[in-house]
Amino acid sequence: MSAAAAVRQDGPLALVCGGGTLPLAVAESVSKRGRVVVVFALRGHADPTLVARYPHHWLRVGQLGAFTRLAHAAGCRDVVFIGSLIRPTLWNLRPDFRALMLLPRIMAAYRGGDNHLLSGVSKIVEDQGFRLIGAHEVAPEILVSEGALGHIDASAQHRQDITFGFDYLRASGAFDIGQAVVVAGKHVLAVEAVEGTDQMLARVADLRAAGRIGAPEGIGVLVKAPKPGQDRRFDLPSIGPKTVAGVVRAKLAGIAVVGGTTVIAEPERVVNEADHAGIFVVGVPGGNEQ
Amino acid sequence: MSAAAAVRQDGPLALVCGGGTLPLAVAESVSKRGRVVVVFALRGHADPTLVARYPHHWLRVGQLGAFTRLAHAAGCRDVVFIGSLIRPTLWNLRPDFRALMLLPRIMAAYRGGDNHLLSGVSKIVEDQGFRLIGAHEVAPEILVSEGALGHIDASAQHRQDITFGFDYLRASGAFDIGQAVVVAGKHVLAVEAVEGTDQMLARVADLRAAGRIGAPEGIGVLVKAPKPGQDRRFDLPSIGPKTVAGVVRAKLAGIAVVGGTTVIAEPERVVNEADHAGIFVVGVPGGNEQ
Prior knowledge:
The structure is a homodimer.
Chain A: H1 2-8, E1 13-17, H2 22-32, E2 37-42, H3 48-52, E3 56-59, H4 64-73, E4 78-82, H5 90-93, H6 97-101, H7 103-110, H8 114-127, E5 131-132, H9 135-138, E6 147-148, H10 156-173, E7 180-184, E8 187-191, H11 197-209, E9 221-224, E10 238-239, H12 241-249, E11 254-258, E12 263-264, H13 267-277, E13 280-284
Parallel strand pairs in A: 1-2, 1-4, 2-3, 4-5, 9-11, 10-12, 11-13
Antiparallel strand pairs in A: 6-13, 7-8, 7-9
Helix pairs in contact in A: 7-8, 11-12, 12-13
């Protein structure tokens, strides 16, 4: 922890922000600790309201040269990536000159699964003289703790589905696939890949409405876990109010994530809305084995 | 084979027909061999045009008593299930008296994954004095052979995606999940669960249109395989003209299935349409390991 603590105080922090409310939570947490935050807002992803509260620069994905210059000028050595970012196509990247010079490496990182992409990108960022750290290292309160977050806990039956889901995600993680699955009565209803958790939950709601799900309403759990070998500085599984809304629409019983390695956006709202809807949100121990 | 050959000639064949054109192909093939076919058409699933060509009875899913009585009266001992059948909800089952008596066992079969459901159902059918056999045993020409079906073959790059896909399906099959996956550049774009292959392909097309797929058009393969331990008398992976159309819309390079353990509907049309669209359809050896 002392090394991490030293890192946190090492000058202004460059916060590269995608979409959602998580970047705001991280920026607030880091600011409260007395560290200067410089926001690099990704155009088309980051929320302009958040951006206005901090010293900031707007960037397009792919503007590596501009980022390097501006972040160095602001005295940032540590960089945190946070927020949702829909995987851009190469066509949309519009790389600047420096990124263009690195294009062969970016292309190599682009092939293969997400882990491959992310580790390639982090290597490139570090080669520019930055230190890439995880959002949870500078704002540990964004992580889900272990146990039930609200008033409702998972039953023994739900625990069986949760175990089944984690077992599946451990097996499929070797193939660098998505981080989420919906399990009902030990039957997998949906597996997340490129579409993301929200779209997967919408699919389950549609299948339910079409009478194609055998399990009755109130049976079924959304299970999320980090992929084995996932670079946690870059991409932890996350949940938020949208996740709760999706689970409610899909008429599932609750949400299970790995405690200590899952990020939560707007935790109070998540707990209130989950309690109100009668669904559980649990952090399950075992992040180390995932 | 001699036992199988004996089975084929054992009196009239009860053909329980779901949707699609496969039941027609099987009925034709069996009839051509000189065996009487009695069609049991599932209401809401089977095609009335097919049904009209053969002695037939309409049944609802769940009418086990009626099926048993009618099939015995027709002198059928062998039963083949063929055609698509959207997994019915218990609510829609409307079981008749005999099925009601067996409800605890049907319920038990209903929990868990598809394999569990299917093996439960086949056990129940066999307990009524029938012998459940595979459609491919009475109509071997419905199976995909090994090698390229049309003029186009998979390249070395596509072969890597195919191997990756089969490896994934072998690992995920232990969890009794769907039988198909879309792989592009060793990156999994979509995994099939309850939604089925057609809906999964539609999702890939949507993600592509939304710019959320990094791989360029013409990279990516639909890979299908039987689940390990799957009851092949009941549920083999299948492809048909709809699959080709879905692959074309998703802008993938082709389709890979396991030769000898995959059913193909309207093979000539599949080959013509695949050739015309410039996509490959290959049967890969290795059904035994799947």
